[in-house]
Fold this sequence. Notes:
There is one protein chain. This protein is an alpha+beta fold. The protein has nine helices and five strands, in the order αααααβααββαβαβ. It has helices at residues 2-7, 11-27, 31-53, 59-89, 103-120, 134-141, 143-160, 188-200, 225-241, and strands at 124-132, 166-171, 174-180, 210-218, 246-248. Strands 2-3-1-4-5 form a five-stranded mixed beta sheet, with helices on both faces. Helix 9 links the parallel strand 4 (210-218) and strand 5 (246-248). Helix 4 (59-89) runs antiparallel to helix 5. It starts with a helix and ends in an 8-residue tail after the last strand.
Amino acid sequence: LASLREAEPDPELARGVRAGELARLRRAEDASTEIPRDIAVLHGVIVGSLGRSGVRVGDEQFAASLQRLSQIFGEIQARVTETIVRERTGEASRDGLTGLPLAPELHEWLRVFAAGQERYGHPFAVLAIDIDGLKRINEAFGRSAGDRMLTAVADLINAEVRNADRVFRLGGDEFCVLAPGKPASLALPLAHRLRAAVDEAQIEIRPRIAITVGLASCPEDGEGPEELLEAAVEATYAAKAVGEGVALAGGRVQDS
């Protein structure tokens, strides 16, 4: 018995080893894409095993249980991904004025969504948002008024996007939204809602501001973070050049 007890692993040591291994995985360069992938693989293995087990508690009840399991795994995957992204970019990547994440976190999420598109074919849209007229606000009412306007625009954007969407401030008068699960053409209604919300919020304000939105799709307009963001920003330039408020990258025609 004594020899058996000596052979038993130390629970505290085992937990320490597992914690150290998890910390190493989370610090890895590809942690934000590989760990969520592993969770998705585990989900698939469990669902597949249940499907082959022959166990049924009524088809409807079984299907409902599988749906709840998928929701749980989806929530775990989303929270793990967000935690790793925050750890990799740090709280310093948050904008002190609007509270939105900045470019470092944007690029990390672009990597996450691009990996999802490559592996599973899940499209996503990138919306580059440029505020027109902010300089006039600063000149007419002062920088503090311009800062309040920036905060108001950030709040309006957050109010219009889905829970799955990600909003970022790029600095100055520029914002960005990542809309997973849809190409840019299907994100056009969001772009138009954002423009309408900014316009309607300024009933008595003069001078007024407006926003221009450029949209790009992965993989149609690029697969890498820099390429996609550049395509969306260039679409804002194209929109302004022709006097439009919304434009798709590559000169594609709006289809909504």
